[in-house]
Amino acid sequence: MENTLHIIGGGLAGSEAAFQAAEAGVQVVLHEMRPKVETFAHQGGDFAEMVCSNSFRSDDHEQNAVGLLHWEMREANGLIMRMATEHRLPAGGALAVDRDAFSASVSEVIRNHPNIRIEEGEITELPTEGNWIIATGPLTSGALGESIACETGADSLAFFDAIAPIVYFDSVNMDVAWMQSRYDKGETEEEQKAYLNCPMTKDQYEAFIDALLAADKTEFHEGETAKYFDGCLPIEVMAERGRETLRFGPMKPVGLTNEHDPENKAYAVVQLRRDNTLGTLYNIVGFQTKMKYGAQQDVFRMIPGLEDASFARLGGIHRNTFLNSPTLLDDQMRLKSRPNLRFAGQITGVEGYVESAAMGLLAGRLAAAEIQGKTLETPPLNSAMGALIHHITGGADAKTFQPMNVNFGLFQPVDGLKGGRRGRKDRYKAYTDRAKAAWIDWLSQG
């Protein structure tokens, strides 16, 4: 028992943690309640299922903090990044994947690893003995959530996360829509035409906003409060902040030329990104929603090109639970009140697939080292991993703590570099060069 690592949750973080620890030679038991206990957001029983978007965001490791995190995970033999790369889809400069093939491949590796054993079934209470990582994510089961709340007192820390709808490609009117990545980004023609674009005139946009604001929305239960993460706001919430908000957000028309009407610039553009290898499914980018199903179909069919759209999945909304990690976790990701328990993934207060998997990678390595009697320091602050874990375990203000994506604002400044937008390219390159050197040095010590 003492030399075995137990992991609760087979999502992105739990799968990565299990793989990292198993590769280090530790015996791992991965506990997953699905498919015996289902959630409304998950579609199947595979590990590392992507329930919201199919994108790991930017893959640019020189100018983007997310891309840098990709690079660091690849250098650390990260399973999630390896499988994402194998099953990537054209998406301009982003790393988007065929979500079903991706999850299936992760599941195959996990299930066939000689050092990993799978136990199906729900864990309803925090374990009192042994070495554990809790990586239950935003959909932590009610019973285990209550146990965590009882131990931490953090029973009010939750926000709501929304899911975007998916459309069948053959139902899109291509006499209206066209294929183009913003600013023709990408090295190949396939990458440069990775997105479906649906243009709107000013009148169409205004009518769409009116319908969006008037549509029936999901109601919250008594005692629940809608504290959304800004990176995943429902489109209705964005529209409520101002009629032009969507046009300067997910519906911005810049960098696009309508091949059907190149002389006239669209007032707003709805983009759809490929969701599977066959190209039969596309998700509506940035269109997370809390509208009721009937209203979604009515409103989304107002989008030019989607008048007769068929939906493989409609949007939804779910509760997303996270810890106040700056007060509860130490720099090894252990619960201060019960150091035999580590937490990883979104429940620690990171936001996004990449960040969740990254925290799983760290938790798996840190736990494996401790079990083997080794001392493994947390990653240096100058690395992307180090910046992120430092933020959630002490760098953030506990009083206002909210889920955080990795970003260069978490990095220590580089002396002698110009600030502002004009100096951004050189500054970001300096951040990434410094981070890569720090990360390679940390890996060599592990």
Characterise this structure.
- Helices cover 32% and strands 17% of the residues.
- It is of the alpha+beta class and 446 residues long.
- The protein has two domains: 4-157 and 322-445, 3-Layer(bba) Sandwich (FAD/NAD(P)-binding domain), CATH 3.50.50.60; 162-319, Elongation Factor Tu (Ef-tu), domain 3, CATH 2.40.30.260.
- The radius of gyration is 22 Å and the shape is globular.
- The model has no long low-confidence stretch (mean pLDDT 91).
At a glance:
The chain is 32% helix and 17% strand. The protein is of the alpha+beta class and 446 residues long.
Overall pLDDT confidence: 91
Q: Which spans of ≥5 residues are poorly predicted at pLDDT below 50? A: none
Q: What is the general shape?
A: globular
Structural class: alpha+beta
- Number of DSSP E strands: 17
Order of strands across the main sheet: 6-2-1-7-17-16
At the third CATH level, what is the topology name of the largest domain? FAD/NAD(P)-binding domain
CATH class of the largest domain: Alpha Beta
Number of domains: 2
Helix percent reads: 25-40%
Q: What is the string of SSEs from the N terminus onward?
A: EHEEHHEEHEEHEEEHEHHEEHEEHEEHHH
Give the number of helices.
13
Rg, alpha carbons? 22 Å
Could you say what the CATH architecture of the largest domain is?
Answer: 3-Layer(bba) Sandwich
